[in-house]
Specification:
The protein has helices at 49-53, 128-140, 157-168, 180-188, 203-213, 227-233, 263-272, 289-301, 318-326; strands spanning 2-9, 22-29, 37-45, 74-81, 91-94, 101-104, 110-111, 148-152, 172-177, 194-197, 218-223, 237-245, 276-279, 309-313, 333-337. By secondary structure, the protein is an alpha/beta fold. The chain has two domains: 2-120 and 308-337, Quinone Oxidoreductase, Chain A, domain 1, CATH 3.90.180; 128-283, 3-Layer(aba) Sandwich (Rossmann fold), CATH 3.40.50. The strands form three sheets. Strands 3, 4, 5, 6, 7, 14 and 15 form a seven-stranded mixed sheet that branches. The protein has a six-stranded parallel sheet with strand order 10-9-8-11-12-13, sandwiched between helices. The protein has a two-stranded antiparallel sheet with strand order 1-2. It is globular, with a radius of gyration of 21 Å. 45% of the residues are buried. Bound molecules: NADP nicotinamide-adenine-dinucleotide phosphate.
């Protein structure tokens, strides 16, 4: 018998999420039965989609039930196994949730080879966020060399990969990020040609700065945030431009709706500029995993893809780290170190 410590959803947020929406609980886990394995979580991924799972409204995925363990991807070590496909000591990535231990029947698990890359990259650049960036620029809003690409949340888990991919493919790349420190990293390390700090610019100033940075218009917008950034981007879209609608984090808590453009203006811009706007959910594109890994894994392994992580220690600190992520407190991939490295427990 193992005792697992988990973070459960205590209540649904009314507006922005708070620490009171989470509760730490301990519960016993039975030993694995035939066909099951027991894992010890090492790394937990924090992702903006988790905010949506805290609400009860209609969405593409079911909400977390009240009292249930918060959903989330994690990298874990197998500590007991009665499953023929997994041995004690294997590292696996799966949807174990915000917990220290979990029982699994092996469905949906992916083995992680720590000799190829740090295991936690399976949650970031070589996992769901990295693949989101790749799918967005490859299949949803494909770009050609020489085109101008704008990426919002430019230094986050998705944006930092999208920016580097767009640059490697020959685009002129403009990032929008929150704060001077993030913008310095974007231009000095990630290769962005320009980075605009949305904290320092109101919508009008951001629109003017985008016009200056992209005088011939924006060919591709990788949309992560909505809010005033979207309002500033839309009038600067080039005729025939493409928008990969990936996320709209500025609106996830039901806030900032006053920053939205009126729908008739959005609609008429799409029409008159002949824009192609396409929303996507990365899980619909997992059949593209092979092509994604073939392009991105060599970039990571050779060090050409720059990585940054914001690591919080201890599962009990996951709620605060998650709230910080929603407010822009992270650089690159937001992670919680739940337990020691494999073999060190
Ligand atoms: N469609 C899909 O399948 C899919 C998959 C993964 C992620 N996503 C979406 O992609 C986006 C980025 O996800 P991620 O995991 O890479 O997160 P992230 O960018 O690492 O973190 C979120 C970032 O959003 C920015 N942000 C927060 N509030 C904002 C606001 N009001 N205005 C402008 N920016 C704001 C902050 O960056 P700054 O400090 O720079 O503002 C923050 O660091 C999210 O919208 C997420 O939901 C979609």
């Amino acid at each position: 018998m193992t005792t697992a410590t988990s973070i459960v959803l205590a209540s649904r947020p009314q507006g922005p999420a708070t620490l009171e929406n989470f509760r730490l609980e301990q519960h016993p886990l039975p030993d694995p039965t035939e066909g099951e394995l027991l894992v010890r979580v090492i790394w937990l991924s924090l992702d903006p989609y988790m905010r949506g799972r805290m609400d009860d409204g209609p969405s593409y995925a079911a909400p977390v039930a009240l009292g249930a363990v918060m959903t989330g991807g994690a990298v874990a070590e197998v500590v007991a196994s009665r499953h023929p496909g997994f041995a004690v000591g294997d590292l696996v990535m799966g949807a174990f949730g915000w917990t220290t231990h979990a029982i699994s029947d092996g469905a949906g698990l992916r083995k992680v080879d720590p000799r190829l890359a740090p295991p936690q990259t399976a949650l970031g650049v070589l996992g769901m966020p990295g693949m989101t960036a790749w799918v967005g620029l490859t299949d949803i809003a494909p770009m050609k060399p020489g085109e101008t690409v704008v990426i919002s949340a430019a230094t986050g888990a998705v944006g930092s990969v999208a920016g580097q991919l767009a640059k490697a493919r020959g685009a002129r790349v403009i990032g929008v990020a929150g704060g001077p420190e993030k913008c310095v990293w974007a231009t000095s390390e990630l290769g962005y040609d320009v980075c605009l700090d949305h904290h320092a610019l109101d919508e009008k100033a951001l629109r003017a700065a985008l016009r200056e940075a992209a005088p011939d218009g924006i060919d591709v917008y990788f949309e992560n945030v909505g809010g005033k950034t979207l309002a500033a981007v839309m009038p600067n879209m080039a005729t025939g431009g493409r928008i990969a609608l990936c996320g709209m984090i500025a609106w996830y808590s039901g806030q900032n709706f006053d920053e939205a453009l009126p729908l008739p203006r959005v609609w008429s811009t799409i029409l008159t500029r002949r824009l192609n706007v396409r929303g996507f959910i990365v899980s619909d594109h997992f059949d593209r995993s092979g092509a994604f890994a073939a392009e991105v894994a060599p970039l990571v392994m050779s060090g050409r893809m720059k990585l940054r992580e914001t690591v919080t220690d201890g599962l009990e600190n996951a709620p605060a780290a998650f709230l910080s992520l929603l407010e822009g407190g992270n650089f690159g991939k937001a992670l919680v170190r739940v337990g020691p490295d494999a073999g060190a427990a």
